[in-house]
Amino acid sequence: MRHISEYKKVAPSHFFYLSLMEILDGKLLSKNIKEELKHEVNVLVSEGKRAPHLAAILVGNDGASETYVNHKVKMCNDVGFGSTLLRLDDNISEEFLLEQVERLNKDDEIDGFIVQLPLPAHINARKVTLAIEPKKDVDGFHPVNMGRMLLGHPAYLPATPYGIMQLLRAYEVDTSGKDCVIVGRSNIVGKPMSVLMARNHKYGNCTVTLCHSKTNDLELKLKNADIIIAALGKPEFINADMVKDNAIIIDVGITRIPDESRKSGYRLAGDVNYADVAEKCSYITPVPGGVGPMTVISLMKNTMKAYKKQVYKS
Length: 314
Prior knowledge:
Blueprint: E1 22-23, H1 26-46, E2 53-59, H2 63-79, E3 82-88, H3 94-106, E4 112-115, H4 125-131, H5 143-151, H6 159-170, E5 179-183, H7 190-198, E6 207-211, H8 218-223, E7 227-230, E8 247-251, E9 255-258, E10 266-269, H9 274-277, E11 281-284, H10 291-312
Helix pairs in contact: 1-10, 2-10, 6-10
């Protein structure tokens, strides 16, 4: 992947309006990775090979899940991947869902697939995750992929942490030796981020503190952090008083806040009060346009890896 400086010439100038702060622009970076993937697919097809194919299972009518899956399908179309969306009623049995998972496991034309979470309460999400073949687990949630990540072996990384690591690498953010505080301990973001930020790697090598709802003196820990990764789901929770000068802020949160001045009736807010915090930072991700676009494009990159393993048996 190219360094972000090769992309900046096409970035709107307002992205860099604060002289001491640089925005980690996921929208810009994902756009250029998308073009690189699209070119790679065009080459494969011109050589007579099939395009990579991603499938998704969506159970029920959860609005947020519907939005996320539609974004993924659109991105597949944009880069030239094949895509399959399997919509299932929320009253299906766990057995029926597991049968669909097994069908996709055995389909050689499907390189990777996801089961969109959350699932209805009567379905055991852990059981469904375990049923997915690790080689097709492009979400990176299967224990095999989690274990390989922990050991530093090649693996499909969960898409959001993978996207964050690509942002740090593209902007050449110096993380080595830094104190990194992660707020939120989910299996999707917090826990895998703690592993990736602590690994012996140029974009890692941090001393990591993983915080959560039972953490004592959270504000003090944040104030002492060189890097803050916020993934707690509380809009604008982190303010300037909790952040030291020149901190690096990665905001994973995204919440709809009612706003009658907007046509949509809402605005999107992260876990960080951006307007309050930005002027103190050396780097910061915006919401929207930061981590979100990188999550979707990282799923595409995992799918391309799965495709190569399937087609080239590598």
